[in-house]
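Supplementary Text 2. Reproducibility record for the structural model of the 329-residue chain.

All settings were left at their defaults, and a single model was retained for analysis rather than an ensemble. We include the record here because the model underlies the residue-level annotations in Supplementary Table 4.
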Amino acid sequence: MFLHFIILLLLWEKTAYRKYDFNYLRRCPGYLTLAKYLKPISLLLFIFFHSPVFAQEEEFSKEPSVVIYTGLINYQGDLNPNSFTIGHANFATGISLRKPVNRWFTARAGITIGQIEAADRYNRDYLKPRNLSFFSNIKEAFAALEFTFLDINRSRFTPYVYAGIAVFHFNPWTYDNEGQKVYLQPLSTEGEGIPQFPSQKPYHLTQFSLPFGIGAKYAISNNINIGFEFSQRKTFTDYLDDVSSFYVDKNVLLQARGPKAVELAYRGNELPGGTGYPAHGEQRGTASEMDWYYFAGLNIEIKLSAFTDLFNGSRNNKSYQQRCPRKLL
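Retained model, structure tokens:
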């Protein structure tokens, strides 16, 4: 087994990945960046499926369970550059399925929804004159692998970590001076898709992200666990808030997308003493830093057999039944 692993490492660079051509992905923003993560993920999966340690574990329950999540969602980006804040966080909820693979690892997959928002009026002082704001619903589907540190069947408590891959949809909007909801992507506020600005490519509203997080859970019965979890999403877009790079020429934007695009691309002139529309090329955002979103909240995990027992009128497993300690001698 060990020799097999060494041979794989030696051949890895010359075979598995170099025979593929990722050039076609360069037309898809963020997808080529995602490709570089495939290598370490593949190595982790190889170790996971081939390590002999797992074959020697005691018998464990592979019973699937459903997890219901409720908590908060927030974002980090140009309109909220601070990390891990709860200011202006919103409610989020989700549901997922968990299926233990072995004593240490559990596969999980599910969906999560929530809404993110931010505004320059709550931003750092030097960014407040920009006066931009946005809202966006986040709808996410994910699959991940979870590593559990302790045997919850014996300890009743365990911390865990997980990582995986997700696909999410967003669509930023704001409210104009008349209080009307206006979606921002079609306005090309930074010249995206306008021929006069060939470097400004349109951004996609459905993207990949890399979810990872930590948590802890406690077994209150044979069938039910409760826990707390914090998780982040590494995205490959800087447009969750429709702010990324620089202002484009006001007259070109006006001609291409109309007065609403000019109105919402810069809103500093709405403030008392605010200045006029910035010159072409002036910084509007930080294109080198991608946006993030993250969750924190509580979850309840229920084994699927509990629902069967409920419908069958079973009276078993009303309380937690702890196993006897293993024999050491």
